[in-house]
Design a protein that fits this description.
Blueprint: H1 2-15, H2 20-78, E1 91-95, H3 104-109, E2 111-114, E3 117-120, E4 124-128, E5 135-137, E6 142-150, E7 154-160, E8 165-175, E9 182-183, E10 188-192, E11 205-211, E12 214-216, H4 218-221, H5 226-270, H6 273-309
Antiparallel strand pairs: 1-4, 2-3, 4-11, 5-10, 6-7, 6-9, 7-8, 8-10, 8-11, 11-12
């Protein structure tokens, strides 16, 4: 009890001090002011953090979009050219691509007979081993640029790819795509059918592979990347250009050689009289030879006339 009384008396003494309550009020005000300032700073920091996070998310998503746009052509370049059928082991090439460097047997298999005339095939005709219709699939991923019906070739579909490569599908009985559609490798394009131009091939699909406007041999590039087609076409163009330049260089060399041969003869004529005196003797010999030649030709004419009279 005495201790409690002593504690209460000490508090009463403190309360009676003149400075106690002002000090208490100032302490409470300082705490309140500190809390208000801290709360305001917290509100300002949260929106800034949210805005920064949104900006970072936008940047990341934007980068991803850019990567997606660039990834698509790269993906097409990494694709390999596939035969436009689902089951390659059950398909066979019945008409080949006419290749000038191929042997005579392959060139004969690349000729198409139509209207009593032979035409060089610019693609390959693919048929099933059982002769039945089959599903034609996209050889590469790309965009369908044209769908049309041709009176000789049947239904035709053209697809554009990266590196100015395009594929061409003809003799389709049914078409399953439309112009402007984006397709992936292996997507169904249509079904194989018959056409007037390739009657000998039966039910088939006529498939062409082109670099720009130039048809290339599809068999050479099956299971090869798209970039390989462009590289091969560039090498062939360079070889053709070098072959065209070589005859011009040879003609120039021959002209130079003729000029060099003529130059010493002119120098000899312009030299002293000794060589000029020798020339008549040589000329005389040439004249005698010429007379003998005329006599021989006259005798030949007479024998021919005798044979004709006989």
């Amino acid at each position: 009890m005495r201790e409690e009384n002593n504690v209460s008396k000490s508090w009463k003494r403190i309360f009676r001090k003149k400075w106690f309550f002002p000090a208490l009020y100032l302490t409470i005000a300082a705490l309140l002011l500190t809390g208000v300032l801290w709360y305001q700073n917290l509100d300002n920091q949260v929106p800034e953090a949210t805005e920064n996070q949104d900006v970072e998310n936008q940047d990341i998503s934007g980068d991803n979009l850019g990567m997606d746009e660039e990834a698509q052509p790269v993906l097409e370049q990494q694709e390999v050219v596939k035969m436009p059928v689902q089951e390659e082991d059950q398909a066979e090439i019945v008409t080949k691509f006419y290749d000038y460097s191929a042997d005579s047997e392959d060139q004969e298999k690349a000729l198409v007979l139509y209207n009593n005339k032979y035409y060089q095939s610019t693609g390959v005709d693919i048929a099933s081993s059982d002769g039945e219709s089959f599903e034609v699939t996209a050889s590469l991923s790309g965009t369908v640029t044209e769908v049309k019906e041709d009176p000789l070739l049947g239904n035709v579909v053209k697809v554009a790819h990266a590196n100015e490569v395009s594929t061409y599908y003809a003799s389709l009985e049914e078409v399953l795509v439309e112009a402007g559609a984006k397709i992936q490798q292996g997507d169904a394009i249509g079904t194989a059918g018959k056409n007037l131009f390739g009657q000998a091939s039966g039910t088939h699909v006529h498939f062409e592979l082109r670099q720009g406007d130039k048809p290339v041999n599809p068999e050479k590039f099956f299971n090869q990347t798209v970039t390989k087609i462009e590289e091969t076409a560039t090498e062939e163009d360079e070889a053709t250009t070098s072959d065209e330049e070589t005859p011009e260089e040879e003609a120039t060399t021959e002209e130079d050689a003729v000029t060099e041969e003529q130059a010493p003869q002119e120098d000899t004529v312009e030299d002293g009289t000794g060589s000029e005196q020798e020339q008549p003797e040589e000329d005389g010999t040439e004249v005698e030879d010429g007379e003998e030649t005329d006599e021989d030709s006259s005798a030949g004419k007479e024998s021919s006339a005798a044979m004709a009279n006989a």
